[in-house]
Amino acid sequence: xxxxxxxxxxxxxxxxxxxxxxxxxxxxxxxxxxxxxxxxxxxxxxxxxxxxxxxxxxxxxxxxxxxxxxxxxxxxxxxxxxxxxxxxxxxxxxxxxxxxxxxxxxxxxxxxxxxxxxxxxxxxxxxxxxxxxxxxxxxxxxxxxxxxxxxxxxxxxxxxxxxxxxxxxxxxxxxxxxxxxxxxxxxxxxxxxxxxxxxxxxxxxxxxxxxxxxxxxxxxxxxxxxxxxxxxxxxxxxxxxxxxxxxxxxxxxxxxxxxxxxxxxxxxxxxxxxxxxxxxxxxxxxxxxxxxxxxxxxxxxxxxxxxxxxxxxxxxxxxxxxxxxxxxxxxxxxxxxxxxxxxxxxxxxxxxxxxxxxxxxxxxxxxxxxxxxxxxxxxxxxxxxxxxxxxxxxxxxxxxxxxxxxxxxxxxxxxxxxxxxxxxxxxxxxxxxxxxxxxxxxxxxxxxxxxxxxxxxxxxxxxxxxxxxxxxxxxxxxxxxxxxxxxxxxxxxxxxxxxxxxxxxxxxxxxxxxxxxxxxxxxxxxxxxxxxxxxxxxxxxxxxxxxxxxxxxxxxxxxxxxxxxxxxxxxxxxxxxxxxxxxxxxxxxxxxxxxxxxxxxxxxxxxxxxxxxxxxxxxxxxxxxxxxxxxxxxxxxxxxxxxxxxxxxxxxxxxxxx
Length: 658
Fold this sequence. Notes:
Structural class: mainly alpha
């Protein structure tokens, strides 16, 4: 949909809103004609710190019954506070809490109320803060404010308790709070708590450092737990050799074996697996399966098959063992054996993977696999894409349609049934007024309360969020709906169209590939941050962003710049283009994007794959294999929405392996 079309729709919606309100209350036509104009003008005046004008325009809005009065009260309270009229600000906040207890602004109102009371009624601020913490005990913002209030009230001991809680949480304001309590004096148990919370947030080096500090002053009863967490932090940091040694001391055979395998110490890994019983323990069965994979990858097929066969009745890994048996036969050109096993797997489990490789094996055996491939095209997954490629067909296009909401905007509460509809009308008005801050607040509230909506309300909310470029939330809501053409468009949105098309044209890369990778990397969450340190929409590592930023003419001063939507998409698209150019193959480029170029080159060299589908299926890292399949599945769905040149499938699969 073009921006002009969006503009016309927005104009019609607002016009309908105003006309309806005027019809309901004819004698107030002139006042209501600009009712929402007052709201927007009041917010604009507030943002520019023209507090008197903000109060005046917001008061005019509040004089006319309309939706979004809670926003008007909140913004007017800010205007009063900015103008030094704090008692009036508190009065507005109190009215908002009493009249709109379910407002999306409720937490913000409490925070502002406490801050304002702190300036004029400190005792009242303390009691409000205590009340707030009972409702929201995990909110470090208010806990920090509470600690500061206690300090001002000369209740230093209680303040220290609050600072300590914040410090140990490893969340918002934790560093600041740690300084307030002199974290170096924390006992070992407290350091362990903070370290564990750091690990939950993927800050493994910092956690390891704290754990080692705690070990120096820990009692014997705590040392085992500390060492266990140090070992796990080392494992997560890929320091596998050191992790293996520590897991060995602790007697944690499973993680010791995994660490040995990851560090390339296969003899020691095998020795550990020898003492395990896969029939009694799921983790032991997993390790035995990994051993079979190791022998297959080094070319010891007979030993690999023996291991897989030993697990064919194992209650923990039976299906995977049967799959690896079939796959081993396939890779070693034993196609009759492979076909029989793929067929047996498909007959038993009905998995698309088994059907596809059954068809591929039949094709290699010079049989007619078209019926099996056609059966795969009825689905919509990664193997569907492969089937289309094998058949030489393009996926059927989904008929184009305009995505727009049909929410009626007027102030008659009886005209619609249920609060859900009122929330949609609120969102529609905010979209029309284009007040970004409020749109984000309202959208987040809708997502948090999505469970109470019926399908129609969910659909309309998803459409509105899509229009507001809140793509992550729109996709999440659309995923709760029965499939339809419109839902498909919402699940696979043409997000950040202008930037994506700019990147596509500049670097000669398919825009749907950019969108597919972005969707699977972050689900369009522009502030995404991964355990490995990848940042933003396309999950760029800082080193990658720094390396390629100059190539695309985008300055990266610090990590905050990588979160910038335009910079992230342009740099990520350029990097992906370079990977495709170097490998001549989209799937291998995707694997490199996820796992690194050098490791993919190693896989290709060792594997000696005959076709790209074999490489994808045999990627050693589970995460990378699943990632490549997800991106290609998503690409299939995007190509179903638009495929003007008819080459969508061949573009991503027609490549030779180097």
